[in-house]
Amino acid sequence: MKIKNIYVHHSAYPSDKFPDQFLLIDLHHKKKFGVKSSLGYYGGYTKLIGMDGSVKRYRVDGEEQTAQKGHNFNTVSYCLAMHGDREYPSEAMEKALTTELDTTMAKYGLTFTDIKLHREVRPTDCPGLNITRTYIMNLLDRRHYQINLIKRLIELSMKLVGLLKKRK
């Protein structure tokens, strides 16, 4: 199955009260949906990203999900372990999400327009008021800026090494 979209969700559980939400979501989705993954979990998302930057997998890419009705067969879904109306992602969560989005886009030939918020396909607040398309775009822009800056610094360092070798 060809992956066509990436979806971003939030758990709606506050991270300060539930710092490790993996099993909590798994049990909740077992009761609510009962769709077991090939990995043996019931969590409806592909992966859960914790405030500490941890990334835990419920399902393999492209496997049927329960995360967004009608869009569960050709997507990779990321759930942010937080309440997106009441809190913002931590720096570690932002870094992990950015890495995951970059990796998934590269792997499946996707672009920013292929990233969707759950509320864009279903009447819900998910992934919360604090997570917007602009927020996601800024995360990716910041990451690409940093990568380009590092590449430029490497180029300049190589030129400097070349100049120093010529002086000897």
How is this structure best summarized?
The chain is an alpha/beta fold.
Provide the spatial order of strands within the biggest beta sheet: 3-2-4-1-5
Structural class by secondary-structure content: alpha/beta
| CATH class category | Alpha Beta
- State the share of residues found in helices, binned by percent: 25-40%
Largest sheet: 5 strands, mixed
The ordered H/E elements are EHEEEHEH
Please tally the β strands and state the result. 5
Distance between the termini: 58 Å
CATH architecture: 3-Layer(aba) Sandwich
How many separate helices?
Answer: 3
List low-confidence stretches. Answer: none
List the quaternary state of the chains. Answer: single chain
CATH topology: Lysozyme-like
Structure, explained:
It is a single chain. The protein is α/β, with parallel strands linked by helices and 168 residues long. It has a single domain, classed as Peptidoglycan recognition protein-like (Lysozyme-like, 3-Layer(aba) Sandwich). Helix content is 38%, strand content 12%. It contains 3 helices and 5 strands, in the order βαβββαβα. Strands 3-2-4-1-5 form a 5-stranded mixed β-sheet, covered by helices on one side. A hairpin with a 5-residue loop joins β2 (47-49) and β3 (55-57). α2 (91-108) crosses α3 (133-167). The mean pLDDT is 90.
